[in-house]
Amino acid sequence: MQRVKNTIVRIALNPIALLFCFMSRAAALASSTVPTNIFAPQSTPAKSIVHLSFFVLAITGIIFAVVFTLLVYSLLKFRARSSSASSEPAQVYGSTQIELAWTVIPVLIVVVLFMATARVVHAIQDAPMPASAVEVTVIGHQFWWEYRYPQLGVVTANELHIPVSDPAHPTPTVLQLLSADTDHSFWIPELAGKTDLVPNHPNRTWMDPEHTGTFEGQCAQYCGTQHAKMLLRVSVDTPDDFAEWVREQRQAAVADERVSAGKRVFETTACINCHSINGTVANGRFGPDLTHLMSRTTIAAGAALNTPENLRLWIQNPDAIKRGSLMPAMQLSKSDLDALMGYLETLR
Fold first, then answer.
1. pLDDT tens-digit profile of 12-44?
2. Dihedral angle sign, alpha carbons of residues 232, 32, 39, 174
3. Which residues contact 131 (CB under 8 A, 6 or more apart)?
4. pTM
5. Contact call for residues 227 and 142 (beta carbons, < 8 A)
6. Residue 199 and residue 219: Cα distance in Å, rounded?
7. H-type helices in 43-180, by residue range?
8. Is the dihedral of CA 176, 29, 208, 196 positive or negative?
9. What is the pLDDT of residues 166-217, one digit of tens each?
10. Domain boundaries along the sequence of the chain
11. Nearest to 124 by CA among 52, 21, 215, 185
12. In CATH, what number does 257-344 get?
């Protein structure tokens, strides 16, 4: 019951929450993607939430207009006049009609809002999924995102790839939401509403984007020092592009003898305690899978663009990009760092 109440409140307040959140992250990541537009939903769940938000806004706007009009009317009609400064206005007690009005009307308004919100919550949470749906397990970490595609045998991080959903042949993406540490909240405003990731309590959401493109979001639950830089990027691909991306992600890391020295540095340092790379001894789970690191647009969960310069700085001094992150500074010598960079740049 508490979960339903929280969902209702979040959906009803969604326009205000969206506005303040995305004003606060205006300087987060300079990229070529189109800025998030809360009034341009691109998925069924987002459209349902926006329509409900406009309905709630219309009702509350009417309430505001009525109350404001009555207030102005009362101020003008019953303002103090010099001719009646010493007299007391007529007193009215026990008006049954007025008491019924200010009791029944608010109750009816609350019931209407509750029923409309409950209908949207039910439509989103209990929507049947076709057999063609893509399943993704999303795991929230401090402070990055892990994505696992159990049907496809793909593991990646921070940048979620999903296929576009053709209304004639729906291909929604169903997200199983888990947390590895504390509370997080998965939120792509143009694709779906907020859904919390709670330790030991799996949640679920879904998206069926109508158009290709890149959509940005944000962890919407304070989860620690770098909560503000735990960003989300969803790439909606055509069916062919998505199939090609899956094929590439299934491949093992490139084995290039020219960067064997860098591979040796990776395998003999603390890197392997947190990260994993297919085809190597590294099988860590505390940090992102790096098998196809250079295929991603950003690093550090969207905190910086994935360029050789930024990647080098991230390895040398993570706090320079994301203060408070759990990535340790590796303290490598220049020769080891150069070799490691040469190796990492082959992971495409």
1. 444 444 443 443 443 344 344 456 788 889 999
2. negative
3. none
4. 0.81
5. no
6. 15
7. 44-77, 96-125
8. positive
9. 888 899 999 999 999 999 999 999 999 999 999 999 999 999 999 999 999 9
10. 257-344
11. 52
12. 2.60.40.420
